[in-house]
Amino acid sequence: MIKLSEVNKSYGKKPVLMDVNLEIPKGEFVMLRGRSGSGKSTLLNIIGGIEPATSGEVSIEGKNVNNLKAKERVDFYRHKVGFIFQGFYLQPQLSVMENIGLMGTFAGMKRSEREVRARELAKQLGIEEVLDSKPAEISGGQAERACAARALFMHPEIILADEPTNNLDPENAQNVIEMLKQIWQDTGATVIVASHDPMVEKYATKVVKVSEGRVTDEAKAK
Amino acid sequence: MKLRLSDAIRISWSSVGGHKVRSLLTIVTIAILFGVVLGVNFVLQGLEDTVVAASVVPTAGKVYIESQYYVTSGAPSTMTEEEILNPDFVKRRVELEADADEYGGKLVGVKTSFNDRPPVEIISVEAVEEYIELDLAGVPEGKVPVLVPWKGFSYDEAMYGMQAEELQRNFEDDFYVVGVMPMTEKGRLELGVGNPLNFLLSSVPSNYAYYPVLIDDGSGVVQKYLKERIDIHRQKQEEKFAEMVVADPEMDEEDYRDTYNYIMSQAIQADRAAIFQFDDPQKAIAYALQPYDYANYLMQQDLFSNTISVARSFAGLKNMLVVIEVILLIVAVVIASLTFGHMIDQDAATIALYRAMGATKLQILLIYLCYLVELCILALGVCLVIALGIAGVTALMNAGELSQKLQKFYRLAEAPRVWFVALNWVTWTVVGAVLVIAPVTLILADRHFSARNIARKLKED
């Protein structure tokens, strides 16, 4: 269970999130829906512990994300959450294989072990043929899949995806959403997608509407 | 920290290629600053090695140093007549030998300096026979063999005219020339007017001699000559004292005795140094550059030539270079820190990504340390190219002229080889200084890695 209580976030004097209260049960496929600048990416980052909330509490399975000690935070990133960033953030100098295995690198996995896991994920997501390529040499859809593979590398319990269909043509966008659904079904992980793409809504089990920093609507999808 | 060093290096190395412009900027800045220092040092050390090598040619590659302890006042300790006439006597001989022995120095004789007009200097034959062809067999009986400062030395030149007048005898009455001393020429070792190398070369001192040196060949003739000189001086001092007594008939007994002792002590002022032979010029230089001890001052100087004087002059120049190096290091660290701080701000997204991928702060710091070390190593490479370029251009423009000047200055049969690249401790401090830039810069830029700063930068982007 992910629980946000009275969460506020501001940059300087500018409020971005106000009094956010939200509960996300384990195993849901959640869409954070909102326009650009509505605060959904910030909300996702706060859930993932990348940005601290100005006030309020974010807890995952009863543990306050803001109060994690350094070692707990590292464990949290390595085993609890996997990020799929907006704009991919694939390291341009590393190969796709090295990008996918980045978490394993920081966890001290041997190169051979990282490669086995990266190949396994690449096969699962259909990007096996681009493993030795550099990010600049692959398509947007392949890059998004590589990001997903990187997020899944350490078998996370929560997957956070920020605008995964941005910059993709409709066909690739559809493929990515289906890929996320497949991951969700295969792993049983909680998937939270921040997006303004109506296509995502069709797949979500829960939709949270974010508007002008407030979670104004919460509706069950099908 | 589980991150393997090889992985950290791979990730950081990809950053060097991925950020070509800012990497190049840092490399070029560091390389130019330190390349100039390294280049000047190459030239400086090359020049020193060249001059030192030329300076030992006249002494068959060996260095001869005269050493003696001075008392704290700096005045030479006085010797009695018996001590002067004993050719083996040297004050604190055991200490002197032990000290020189640490540097491979071997006692080969002594040098006696008898203060007179002209000064009388005597050296043991063992200190010169290895590198000067001496015609000792041809010395007429009763005459003292001498080395003269230059071929064709005129017996009546300089102060020897005075000797002829005062002692009522000519140079040739007492001495017989058996060879020429291996001294330098007069004046300075300099290239053409306005040549910047003159700044370095002008500190090379001349060891030109004006007076002959007596050779003690063990026959006792030198002691006999010295005894005569001492007796003449005693007699002259007695006459001087007698004049003073006549001038002051009121002098009491105590004053009379003190004045007499003082006047007579002036008759024989002499000191004696031990002469050490060093087969390795670098060890001789190390012996001569020992830390200065005011309370127990060991005075060393070249017997002939000017090897250790050259080393001392260049040591001063190298110390100056180190001061410049420290200033450049501070400038380089400031520039690198500013560039690096800016670079980390630009890399906020990457650092956030690393964090989100489970990297600890130490792992992130290690990656950036590797990145900085890689830049510094590349900068060292460019630095070396710049330094070799400076040395190469200097050699092209000056090698020929310098070789000729050295040949003339040291009176050599052949022009010596000249080089402008040599390593020394300054080289290693430059290498160390460039590598130190990496950790110092990282420490100074530490605040840029804070989660707050990264979050702020992400939001600004």
Which features does this protein show?
heterodimer, A: 222 residues, Rossmann fold, four-stranded antiparallel β-sheet, 8 helices, 36% helix, globular, B: 461 residues, alpha+beta, eight-stranded mixed β-sheet
**Largest sheet: number of strands, sense, barrel closure of chain B:** 8 strands, mixed
Anisotropy-based shape of chain B: elongated
Oligomeric status: heterodimer
Helix-strand pattern of chain A: EEEHEEHEHHHHEHEHEE
- Described by the principal axes of the CA atoms, the overall outline of chain A is globular
> In total, how many domains does the architecture of chain B comprise?
2
CATH architecture of chain A: 3-Layer(aba) Sandwich
State the total count of DSSP E strands of chain B: 8
Order of helices and strands of chain B: HHEHHEEEHHEHEHHEHEHHHHH
- Strands of the widest sheet of chain A, in order across it, are 6-7-8-3-9-10
Task: Report the CATH topology name of chain A.
Answer: Rossmann fold
Helix content of chain A: 25-40%
CATH homologous superfamily designation of chain A: P-loop containing nucleotide triphosphate hydrolases
The biggest sheet of chain A amounts to: 6 strands, mixed
What is the number of beta strands of chain A?
10
Tell me roughly what share of residues is in helical segments of chain B.
55-70%
Please report which band the strand proportion of chain B falls in: under 5%, 5-15%, 15-25%, 25-35%, 35-45% or over 45%: 5-15%
